[in-house]
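Hi V.,

You were right to ask for the full record rather than a summary. Here it is.
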Amino acid sequence: YSIENNGFDFLKLIPEEVIEYLSAAELEMKIVVSEDRDNFDYIYSVQDLASLLPSHYQKKRNLSKRFMKDYPNSKIVALDLRDVLIRDKILELFYLWERQQSRVREDTKNELQALTKLLMTSEFSFVSVGIFIQDTLTSFSINEVLKNHFAVTHFEKFDSQFYGVSSYLKQVTAQRLLQSGCMYLNYEQDLGIPNLRNAKELLHPVRYLKKYTVKKITRI
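Predicted structure:
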């Protein structure tokens, strides 16, 4: 179908569960399967992120504590994505993050489009968390609760002017997800972006949700 309709002799983002169904004969005779490392999803323990107690989280734990010490009047807010004012604050923070990261709109337009579209829907079960200092939204996280005690983080942005806010946001988000019965959190893929991969690795995933590329063998 892909060859006839799209002109491509390969399929991407094929999950591990599908690959397991392919027989050795099919692998040898018809297709080549290769790991797509850039699109592996990172899976984390919600319990570990909620407590930050494991030793490898010491730096994150210290950053979270530092934020609480520096901003004792900060507030954790369950964001109502139907609220127009909340939507505006989320988008304002996205634009601020864009500038702080020196990102151009050409690089962020797909993410911005996806975020804008998500803010206009109420069809999914979201755990959305914001950290406010007075009326300023310093960070937000939008997570979808899935089946089998899983959740997936769709968007997470923060104002880097507030030292430690990223670690604090991750911790309080995990605490909210734990209350919702979630045991595992999917932080999605790193797309091969070095800084993003390093940040996700430093969070110590308990496993990866592997993705593969399947390419048809052309025989002469």
